[in-house]
Every structure is written in C-alpha cells, then in structure tokens.
Amino acid sequence: RVDPRSNPLLGRSMDDPEYWDEAARAPWAQILLKKEQYWTDRRNIWLEQYNNIVRKNRGREELADLLEASPNKVKRLTAPILKYKVAETFLLTIY
Questions:
Q1: How many CB atoms lie within 10 A of CB 92?
Q2: 10 φ/ψ angles, rounded to the nearest 5 degrees
Q3: What is the C-alpha to C-alpha distance for residues 51 and 73, in angstroms, rounded to an integer?
C-alpha cells in the first residue's frame, strides 16, 4: 500500500485545485517551470530580433525606392557609401 503522507496527491482528482497546488510544489515541477520560463524568455528575444530585422528591411526597401526616384547625381554620390551600415543608418534616420 502507498502511504498518503508520502504522496499527498493520492486519491485526489485532477479537477481539484489542491491537486495542482501540490503538484507545483514538487521539486521536479519547479525545475520544469524554470526551464519553461527560460525558453519563453528566449522565444521573446527571438521575436524581438525578428521584428527588428523586418522593420529594418522595410526601411531599406523604402530607402531603395527613394533612391530610385532620386536624380542620377544623388545616386552616384550615395551608391559607393551605402555598403557601410553607418551611411545606411544615417540615411534611414534622415528619412
């Protein structure tokens, strides 16, 4: 026989709120919660990075469209320096 003192979840329904409170107190449950929190944080960081990439790509597309519509003199001046991030960032902040 199993001693109910060693297993407080014995005989309780999964619908019982005390069941889940007791299950969350177990050491393995705390480890699982920490791992889940870690991966949730990582997912949030990945989503932020992805959103930054999408936003910067949109800005580059708009900048390219503006440069296409600009005079040839401006194109000749900006084309050689656009390979540098500093120039790209500067032009995006101006726009």
A1: 13
A2: -65, 125
A3: 34
Q: What is the pLDDT of residues 3-39, one digit of tens each?
A: 767 777 777 888 888 887 877 877 778 888 889 999 9
- Say what the pTM is: 0.60
CB-based contact 19:13 (threshold 8 Å):
yes
DSSP one-letter string for 44-80: HHHHHHHHHHHHHHHHHHHHHHHHHHS-HHHHHHHTT
The token pair at 37 is 């929190």
Note the Cα 35 to chain centre separation in Å: 16
What totals of helices (H) and strands (E) does the chain contain, helices first?
4, 0
